[in-house]
Amino acid sequence: MKRFLVLLCITFSLSAQAQLSFYNSDAYWANFCFQSDCVKPDLSDTCLVFVSNRHFYKDSLRFVDEYVDTAGLKYFFLQKRAGKWNVYQTPTLADAMHMLPEKRDIVVYAEGMGKIFTTNVERGLLMRSQYNVNVVMFDYASINTTYRPARNFKFARNNAKLSAPHYFKLLRIIQQARREQEDWMQQVKVSTFYHSMGNIILMEMMKGEDYKQLNEEPFIENVVINAACVPSKGHKEWVENIGFANKIYIHYNRADWQLKGAHLLTMTPQLGEKQKGMLAENANYINFRDQVGSQHSYFLNFPQNEYRMTSEMRAYFSQLFTGNVAVLEEEKTLAKKQVNSVGAVN
């Protein structure tokens, strides 16, 4: 087991360093230009909204850093035009949302370990393009490019925990916009998606913040707990306290090699790996083992990876991210409950 753990850490390190050396290079950061005045987006422009708790330095090439700023949130509108990203800071989330060129269903997206600002942009871009949604990326510091892998594991977990109050504030803003029927919220569905260590933010919010304020009405369609790098044991208690969403989905894969590594590092089975103890009665549990093998990020097709989602998976995630009820075929789910010859998880 020790030998496997060492090999796993080396693999993590080499993979992360290879990606970071590209996305954190001066040449790559030069594709991002902080602007003071926004050029009205065309329908052909690719646009994202970022809500970040990083420190912000508008006159620097790397205008956001790799640390959590506990002072509060910053809102950014990102516009890709002619291969370059124009970045604008806005006073509020609503100001950023009003700049999007068209209304689409919204995914509030929290990533896992190993993401600097530019890699979060890449992930947000892929989700926006592959699922035809508007992405609100919750951008927090989940890696430091100067740290070794073991220290970064602790760094990312701690920063996800520190980010829970900020994420709670973001959901309260969305809740208020829905309650007041602000125009950017009308005729769209909103879902929240948490990948890997991003689920620490959700878990810590449910454990440490006044979630009863969020539960005053369901304003989120789907809460998606994907490949969660949080303890499986005891998850029932905090998941069952989620009352602000119409549906909750928990995705897991016993063969997920990254979560196996997290299991070994923490000596604790991970929720995205396997179920331990009682299950949450308000959640749908989806087993992706037969669909994805040992994959961890199986919700997007990445240009640099050989892995590709099946058509069933693409349809499933498309339904999730557009705020609809989503099911996989019976043989692709754990529950195997027959409903008109099609499987469903209830």
Defining key terms:
Alpha/beta hydrolase, globular, 346 residues, alpha/beta, ten-stranded mixed β-sheet, 34% helix
> How far is the N terminus from the C terminus?
37 Å
- Beta-strand residue percentage: 15-25%
Q: What Rg, in angstroms, do the CA atoms define? A: 19 Å
Structural class by sheet pairing and helices: alpha/beta
- Spatial arrangement of strands, main beta sheet: 1-6-5-2-8-7-9-10-11-12
**Helical coverage, percent range:** 25-40%
The largest pleated sheet is described as: 10 strands, mixed
* Strand count: 14
Number of helices: 11
Please provide the ordered H/E string of secondary-structure elements.
Answer: HHEEEEEEHEHEHHEHEHEHEHHEE
Oligomeric state of this protein: single chain
Low-confidence stretches: 330-346
Question: Taking all residues together, what is the mean pLDDT?
Answer: 90
Shape category:
globular
Describe this structure in words.
The chain is an alpha/beta fold and 346 residues long. It has eleven helices and 14 strands. The chain has helices at residues 2-23, 26-29, 93-98, 117-131, 149-162, 164-179, 198-208, 235-239, 257-266, 289-292, 311-321; strands spanning 32-35, 46-52, 54-56, 64-68, 74-81, 84-90, 106-110, 134-139, 190-195, 220-226, 245-252, 283-287, 337-339, 342-344. The strands form three sheets. Strands 1-6-5-2-8-7-9-10-11-12 form a ten-stranded mixed β-sheet, sandwiched between helices. It has a two-stranded antiparallel sheet with strand order 3-4. Strand 11 (245-252), helix 9 and strand 12 (283-287) form a beta-alpha-beta unit. The chain is globular, with a radius of gyration of 19 Å. 40% of the residues are buried.
